[in-house]
Amino acid sequence: MAEWLLADVGASNTRVALATPAGVLRETAQTLRNDGFADLAPLLAAYLDTWGARPTALCAGVAGPVRNGTAQLTNLDWFIDSATLARATGASEVHLINDLQAQAWALDDLAAETLTPLIPGIPAPDGPRMVMGLGTGSNIAVAHRMGARLFVPPAEAGHSSLPHLDETTNALITALAAEIPHKPYEALLSGPGLSRLYRLRTGHSLPPPQIVAAHAAGDADATATLEVFAKIMGTVTGNMALTHMTTGGVFLIGGAARMVASHLLSLGFAEHFTAKGPYTPILRAMPLTLITDDHAALSGCARYLRQHLK
């Protein structure tokens, strides 16, 4: 019998599943459109009614900062409150964590076939591991091993500022500042960010999949845009990896990450990722891996509950 309710709450969709201490019950996993509900509580209540389930505990990974048992989603006007979720679901324990934290909590439970190596590297067995999400927005989370347990602190890195780069890229970042003054890196490193970067360069709008397809077909504007994207992504990812000394490896996840992953190395990502002066050898040893499991955050929520409910 299911004991736990798990949720991965994004800007557009929420993935939901039931679980036991043994893991996620994959046959219960569903993806629900957020625009069909006023907020998360009625969405979860409707899901539970479908299964006739009444969980004892709930863990939700949410796309926004969590403070004092509440969360405001960054890219959706939903305010989430633990007490409201407890009433809606009947769960006696409700845990809210950031969605990237949930992804990092899953790292030890991912199937080998959901991991695609991009750069091999030499991982330190007990080194910190970083997950970088590229989707509607962007963020990171770092998983630290503490014996048999994990420690995964929250972050809201996507709203940290873009770095200083070459003259051409800096001009694009200056143009971005006219639209978003604090110049967060997710404004360019995300699905919408890739479209914004293309518009800032060319004056025309194009959805991310069409930009990637145009690059594959040899379009010069699309290729130039993706080269800038890879330069910024390599620099930012390298900065984060060095800041946290993620010698256990760097993992990419999210729709935008999957879209560009196969092109990153040919676009120059690795050169910018490792360009850290005397610390270049440290970056070169960090493996880079793509996660393709759409339910990774649910697995992470289950791992979180296993550790915290003991």
Automatic annotation (TrEMBL):
One of its GO terms (biological process) is glycolytic process. Gene3D superfamilies: 3.30.420.40, 3.40.367.20. GO terms for cellular component: cytosol. It holds the Pfam family Glucokinase. GO terms for molecular function: ATP binding; D-glucose binding; glucokinase activity. It comes from the Bacteria. InterPro entries: ATPase_NBD, Bacterial_glucokinase, Glucokinase. Keywords: Kinase, Transferase. Signal peptide: none annotated. Belongs to the bacterial glucokinase family. This is Glucokinase. It comes from Roseovarius azorensis.
